[in-house]
Amino acid sequence: MQQKYLPLVTRLGIIYAVLAVAFVAQTVLSYSNGQRLKAVYQSQIQAARGLDDLTQALYALRLKVFQYLGTSKPAEMDAIKTEAAALSAAIAKQLQYGALGELAPLFAKAQAQYDSIIKEHGDFKTKQAYQAIYGDSQATFEQSKTSITGLSGRARAQAEAAEQSAFNTILGVTIGAAVLVAAALGFLVYYSKRAIVSPLNRLSVYAAKVSQGEMEAPIDGVYQAELHILKESLSQMVVNLRDQISLAARDEEKARLCADEAIAARSQSEGLKIQAERSFDRMKDAAGQLEQMADTLASASQELSHQIEESAQGANMQKSRASEAFDAITQLSQVSLEVSQKASTSAQLAERTRTEADKGSQVVDSVVEIILQVHAKAQANKNDMAELGKQAQAISTIIDVINDIADQTNLLALNAAIEAARAGEAGRGFAVVADEVRKLAERTMNATKEVSQAIGNVQDATRRNLAYAEETNSAIANSVERANQSGDALKTIVGLIDETAGQVQSIAAAAEEQSATTDHIMEALRHVSSIAEETARCMDESSAAVSDLALTSSRLSELIMEMREQESAEEIAPTPALARSAPLGRLALPPRLPSPVGGTRAQPLRAQPGQRREYS
């Protein structure tokens, strides 16, 4: 029982569908991971920028408070209110985005402490204000700074983890899709060669052997689906063709034997006629033998007629078999045409697959463009970090100026204390003020040291952020390179699909060549059929010739009977009556039959009713 196989077009369609699904899945996953990486990166950038804004606002507020405690100018109070409002707005914005976490209470506490310090200084509680700003406020500031550093580190770690996860996912999907596509294409090429090209080559070799006369040549190999139908049809066609050729050979031999017998019979009749003309005076003695020969000739004519009838039936059967073989070859030609059409359909499917691969390559190009945009934004963030470092350096310069002013103030306070000591009792109050100024200058110097240290920490954090931004740019550049490699792999896949389409076109050309070979075989069968028709026609002519021969034999029998009657009449009548009898030359003898010359078929001569011939 023949195993059922899927049609070739269905199998190729399944393979192309698998390739298309792999392309679409790889493209969708790459695009989604790129979008996820972009969203994570933007969220982390916003969080980092928000933390930087809060840190700058907190430093600015603390600096303004220091300046206000040193000068007590109304303009400084306005600046403190402006910085406090900016800090409140930044805190409210980060609370809205949910980016502060555990820092929200610390910032709120720091703002409340600064409000309390300003209020105490306004109530002439300067000493309490200094104690607050160097005590609880300093601790809150250090705790906020530590928390900001930890939160920035976690944000960077989350960004790096998300980036690495997205990169690993894109790399895994790209490698998996490339392996799947390469395996599918390898299987497609192997399957096309094994299931289509090799069987068609074997069938072409077999058809060439048959066209050269090797009717017993076997068909090697295993064939599936349409190729199995083509192989069975071709094998059955060769069997029918071999049977028809054998039958035609037998009929030709039989016809040749019948023709030889007819020629021999005609030659025998011609000899009898010549003998009758030369030996008419001995006709009386040979009448009995001639009658026996006429009987034998009649019997041979009947047997020859029967054999010719059988030969005619064989020729008709040969004609029918040739017609059946022609129908089988026509069906084989239709199957070959169908194979060619399906090969063309497979080529169209290959072209559609190449189009989908081009679309996938375009999507990969768009992903590369998105990653390049992320790279540009990362570069902008790096530039912002560099600008932040420059601002911190400028603040360091300002702190140096403040330190110089504090040194000068300390010297002035020392000089004032010396002058107060010289003044004696009158300068005691001035000495107290000078001492307070000196203490304030010392505190200012200590505060500027703290601010310098804090700014140094900010600069260190900025440098680390710059390093992280550089690493991020490197990772994004690596992602761009990987995406470009994916695009190159897709282009290579498109080239392989084009090569597969060329193989399918070669299959279509081979099917067309097979159809042409079938047409040659059909032409040979037409020639065999024409030979069979010619044989049947020759059998009809031979049958007519045998009928004429039977008629001649009958006329010969009548002639013998007439001679016997004349012989009886001569025995009764006197001798002169014999002289007055009708001349024997006017008896109705059969006409001469022309002998075949140069292979030309002898045309039978039919005697007309009442016609007689005279013999010389």
Work out the number of β strands. 0
Oligomer: single chain
Q: H/E order of the elements?
A: HHHHHHHHH
The end-to-end distance, rounded to whole angstroms, is 79 Å
The largest β sheet comes out as: none
Radius of gyration: 61 Å
> Structural class of the helices, strands and pairings?
mainly alpha
Strand content: under 5%
Low-confidence stretches: 574-616
**Arithmetic mean pLDDT:** 69
Count helical runs.
9
| Helical residues, percent | over 70%
Shape: rod-shaped
GO cellular component, one term: membrane
Domain HAMP: 194-246
Keywords: Coiled coil, Membrane, Transducer, Transmembrane, Transmembrane helix
GO biological process, one term: chemotaxis
Structure description:
- This protein is mainly α.
- The protein has a domain at 225-348 and 513-573.
- The chain is 88% helix and 0% strand.
- The protein has nine helices and no strands.
- The protein has helices at residues 8-71, 74-97, 103-122, 126-134, 136-211, 225-278, 283-423, 428-572, 575-580.
- The longest helix has 145 residues, at 428-572.
- The two termini are 79 Å apart.
- The relative contact order is 0.10.
- The model is unreliable at 574-616 (pLDDT under 50).
Reconstruct the topology from this structure:
Elements: H1 8-71, H2 74-97, H3 103-122, H4 126-134, H5 136-211, H6 225-278, H7 283-423, H8 428-572, H9 575-580
Helix pairs in contact: 1-2, 1-3, 1-5, 1-7, 1-8, 2-3, 3-4, 3-5, 4-5, 5-6, 5-8, 6-7, 6-8, 7-8
